[in-house]
């Protein structure tokens, strides 16, 4: 079963089974298809992915390390559901990380890498244009992860990976309004500033981008699903 999943997701052959399960759960969180507070039943996930509970447990352990899953002794794992105060702390922390990442990207990124970053944003825009909101949201998160990779600082990348996925949970839990996205416009502007090596402008644009995200949070709405089979049904629908 997981061989088919790996092909559909473009995973490399060297990926382990828990790598693949981890990646699909992580993607589901980035796409806001899985609701905060959802119980991640090992038996159900094992049936969904066609793997042992040991494989599932290893994948969940990695997600727990990144603080997007809460591992509860003798009660199983649940998707993290940040409180209002926790959400504010996460957003604050992300501001600090994003500023450092942006500065380092300007110092370290080569033009060819910036071109690839722009291609990712074009893919993000295409997803939203064709109505694939989930994939668009995931690519929006991947933009920030790619930025952290270009910063060439391993600890920052580790922090950013956790913060981006936690912010996705916060948005799924607390975002208000019609949930319109103009993230790709702001990403394009940011890329232009990076290409110009304008550190002050790039940092200002990044802070504005985070302001835009934060202003849409009203700590009141919840739109994701807690039905695991429904969340991952798209994996098996593609041959």
Automatic annotation (TrEMBL):
Domain HTH gntR-type: 15-82
Residue spans crossing the bilayer: none
Coiled coil: none
UniProt GO molecular function: DNA binding; DNA-binding transcription factor activity
Pfam families: FCD, GntR
PANTHER family per UniProt: HTH-TYPE TRANSCRIPTIONAL REPRESSOR NANR, TRANSCRIPTIONAL REGULATOR, GNTR FAMILY
SMART domains, sorted: FCD, HTH_GNTR
Keywords: DNA-binding, Transcription, Transcription regulation
Protein's name in the database: Transcriptional regulator, GntR family
InterPro entries: GntR_C (IPR011711), TF_FadR/GntR_C (IPR008920), Tscrpt_reg_HTH_GntR (IPR000524), WH-like_DNA-bd_sf (IPR036388), WH_DNA-bd_sf (IPR036390)
């Amino acid at each position: 079963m997981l061989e088919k999943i790996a092909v559909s997701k473009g995973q490399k052959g060297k990926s382990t089974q828990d790598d693949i399960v981890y990646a699909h759960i992580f993607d589901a969180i980035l796409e806001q298809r899985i609701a905060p507070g959802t119980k991640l039943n090992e038996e159900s996930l094992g049936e969904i992915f066609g793997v042992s509970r040991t494989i599932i447990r290893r994948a969940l352990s990695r997600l727990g390390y990144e603080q997007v899953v809460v591992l509860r002794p003798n009660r199983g794992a649940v998707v993290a559901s940040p409180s209002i105060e926790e959400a504010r702390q996460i957003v604050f922390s992300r501001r600090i990380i994003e500023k450092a990442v942006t500065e380092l990207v300007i110092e370290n990124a080569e033009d060819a890498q910036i071109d690839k970053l722009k291609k990712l944003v074009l893919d993000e825009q295409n997803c939203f244009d064709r109505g694939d909101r989930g994939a668009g949201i995931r690519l929006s998160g991947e933009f920030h992860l790619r930025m952290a990779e270009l910063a060439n600082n391993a600890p920052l990348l580790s922090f950013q990976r956790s913060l981006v996925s936690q912010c996705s949970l916060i948005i799924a839990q607390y975002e208000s309004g019609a949930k319109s996205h103009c993230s790709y416009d702001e990403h394009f502007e940011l890329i232009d500033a990076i290409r110009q090596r304008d550190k002050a402008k790039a940092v200002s644009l990044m802070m504005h981008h985070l302001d835009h995200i934060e202003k849409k949070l009203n700590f009141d709405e919840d739109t994701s699903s807690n039905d695991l089979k429904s969340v991952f049904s798209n994996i098996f629908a593609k041959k």
